[in-house]
Design brief:
Number of helices: 12
Protein name: Class A beta-lactamase-related serine hydrolase
Largest sheet: 7 strands, antiparallel
Pfam families: Beta-lactamase
Keywords: Hydrolase, Signal
Oligomer: single chain
Distance between the termini: 22 Å
CATH superfamily of the largest domain: DD-peptidase/beta-lactamase superfamily
GO molecular function, one term: hydrolase activity
Strand order of the largest sheet: 2-1-15-14-13-12-11
InterPro entries: Beta-lactam-related, Beta-lactam/transpept-like, Diverse_Enzym_Activities
Strand content: 5-15%
CATH topology of the largest domain: Beta-lactamase
Shape: globular
CATH class of the largest domain: Alpha Beta
Radius of gyration: 21 Å
């Protein structure tokens, strides 16, 4: 999470200087898909940080997108999308696995339907998925013994990870075994693990949601924040409420209107050359896990994963964050009303529930109950705290190291793209915050 690093005016000064310096920047949704590298950067400390990451072999490449108001986005990049010397340079249109940064996009789709009255925030999920009418809750984490849930799971609880659902990256014991045996694994990493998971994973989003409903919850709905498959189940709610497949809803109602032309559940073969290689760190060594040109993301997933399924570019994801920064409209296109955008990025946790911290491997933001809450699909800073994000900042990250934040009050935003596991191998959040503070200090 990026702390409050300067006033919007200071950041605007940086971005204006970039434009004046000839920085290669998009000026509209129809800007060229590629542009020549800038000779100078309006964010020299951030550029130096990115260069140092590549030079010290922490990663083959990295891209950042930073914006204030409606000024042109500044893109900062270094390195390549693969270790090979002949690999394309990393840039605004390179493709990255954003994993859990899919969740806020799914949440936006839900908020659009809430605004239209097709979904209500505190409506039972069972109104859309009848199998959720008779949920049960684990009596102990040591067994699958269960009791009837005291209350139904609601839409709010799916969006805020308070439904009591599990997740293979955080669930332990018998319930984890049950999730794996039932194929409740809505993510893709590499071809080898994917082939194994497809043996048990449901083939459709409807079957997935119905199977989830057969497994016990880890806690009573609305009583505990626990990272979960809630946004994956939300995908099924969206397709029932909208009357169209979940992935088609995202494409026709969000990606196409926003000009997000490089966002995919399945990367077309023609675009494989833009897809970064996914790496995994084992000790002090980094090895390729999923090569871009032969990536498992070139194959259709079992179903569209609303919690971790998207591949996108820094340019495209900046379109999404820019929309949220501007209260639901961008480039003459409005997807949600300002009040709906504000609701999405507000603390939506049920009464008495607090957000403690992002679990390892989630890519999420750190914090505590006094400083951070949770909105629809992302964390929300409740106060201004030195060293952390400004009040009202909405943010999250992905399992392969990507991060984003939107500060709607100060009208600035940022996205950083990398692709390696584990996501916390290097302290990108704090490093980028420090570099941006140094860059902005010179413009105050």
């Amino acid at each position: 999470m990026i702390r409050q690093i300067a006033t919007g005016a200071a950041l605007a000064a940086v971005l204006v200087s970039g434009a004046l310096a000839g920085q290669a920047l998009p000026v509209s949704p129809s800007a060229p898909a590629s542009a020549p590298a800038a000779k100078t950067s309006p964010l020299p400390d951030t550029q130096a940080l990115f260069d140092s990451y590549v030079q010290s072999d922490k990663m083959p490449g990295i891209v950042g997108a930073f914006g204030a108001g409606d000024l042109p986005t500044v893109f900062v990049s270094a390195g390549r999308i693969d270790d090979a010397a002949t690999a394309p340079a990393a840039g605004p249109d390179s493709l990255w696995r954003v994993y859990s940064m899919t969740k806020p996009i799914t949440a936006l789709a839900a908020m659009m339907l809430i605004e239209q009255g097709k979904i209500k925030l505190d409506q039972p999920v069972s109104d859309f998925i009848p199998a959720f009418k008779t949920m049960r809750v684990q009596i102990s984490p040591d067994s699958l013994a269960s009791k009837p849930a005291a209350s139904p799971i609601t839409i709010r609880e799916l969006l805020t990870h308070t439904a009591g659902l599990g997740y293979t990256i955080v669930t332990r014991g018998p319930l984890l075994d049950a999730y794996e045996k039932a194929g409740i694994t809505p993510f893709t990493a590499d071809a080898k693990s994917e082939a194994k998971m497809r043996l048990t994973r449901p083939k459709t989003l409807e079957d997935f949601a119905n199977k989830v409903a057969t497994l016990p919850l880890i806690a009573e709905p609305g009583t505990k924040w626990s990272y979960s498959i809630g946004l994956d189940v939300m995908g099924r709610v969206i397709e029932v409420a909208s009357g169209m497949p979940f992935d088609r809803f995202l494409q026709t109602r969000i990606f196409t209107p926003l000009g997000m032309t490089s966002t995919y559940f399945t990367v077309p073969a023609s675009e494989a050359k833009r897809l970064a290689t996914g790496y995994v760190w084992i000790g002090d060594g980094r090895i390729p896990l999923d090569r871009g040109e032969s990536s498992v993301f070139l194959q259709p997933p079992s179903f569209p994963y609303g919690g971790a399924g998207l591949v996108t570019s820094a340019r495209d994801y900046d379109r999404f964050t820019h929309l949220l920064q501007d209260g639901g409209a961008l480039g003459g296109v409005r997807l949600i009303k300002p009040e709906t955008a504000a609701l999405m990025m507000s603390n939506l946790l049920p009464p008495g529930v607090t957000y403690r911290d992002a679990p390892a491997g989630s890519g999420g933001t750190s914090g505590g109950p006094a400083t951070v809450g949770f909105g629809a699909g992302g964390s929300v800073n409740l106060v201004d705290v030195p060293g952390h994000a400004g009040k009202g900042t909405y943010a999250w990250g992905g399992a392969a190291g990507t991060i984003f934040w939107v500060d709607p009050a100060r009208h600035f935003r940022g996205t950083v793209m990398v692709n390696y596991l584990p996501n916390d191998k290097w302290p990108i959040r704090s490093d980028v915050a420090k570099a941006l503070r140094a860059d902005l200090a010179r413009y105050r």
